[in-house]
């Protein structure tokens, strides 16, 4: 019997999933597996913004995320950790965003892997690149 794994899904991975791309199919397999899947609330906002700007359904995106993962709210501790991580990583990865820092902070809090295709995460041991 396979042990479940813990993942934090970032905006890149959710967008690929919503598009139904090959990378999205990899995300789908993890969502359908026996895994613990989380999404940072900042990521939810990021995905909704992207789909609205693309003319896609915000309701479908919202339901896909909230039905397939547990949304982790932002609190003062997580914000502090995200701020520290943002400052540290930004020294090495020039355009590492604050939203990326929240994903990284969530993954550290949950001891989870980050499911992503975002090149900002490519050299991080916490990342699984789709």
Outline the low-pLDDT stretches: none
Series of H and E elements: EHHEHHEHHEE
Structural class designation: alpha/beta
User: How many DSSP-defined strands?
Assistant: 5
Any idea how many domains?
1
Assign a percent range to the helix content: 55-70%
Radius of gyration (Å): 14 Å
Main sheet overview: 5 strands, parallel
Shape: globular
Side-by-side strand order of the widest sheet: 3-2-1-4-5
Strand content: 5-15%
**What separation lies between the terminal Cα atoms?**
24 Å
Counted by DSSP, the helix tally is 6
Overall residue-averaged pLDDT value:
95
The first-level CATH class name? Alpha Beta
CATH architecture: 3-Layer(aba) Sandwich
CATH fold call = Rossmann fold
Annotated CATH homologous superfamily = 5'-nuclease
Could you please describe the fold and organization of this structure?
The chain is of the alpha/beta class. The protein has a single domain, classed as 5'-nuclease (Rossmann fold). It contains six helices and five strands, in the order E-H-H-E-H-H-E-H-H-E-E. The protein has helices at residues 11-19, 22-32, 41-53, 58-68, 76-90, 98-110; strands at 6-9, 36-40, 70-72, 113-116, 127-129. The model has no long low-confidence stretch (mean pLDDT 95).
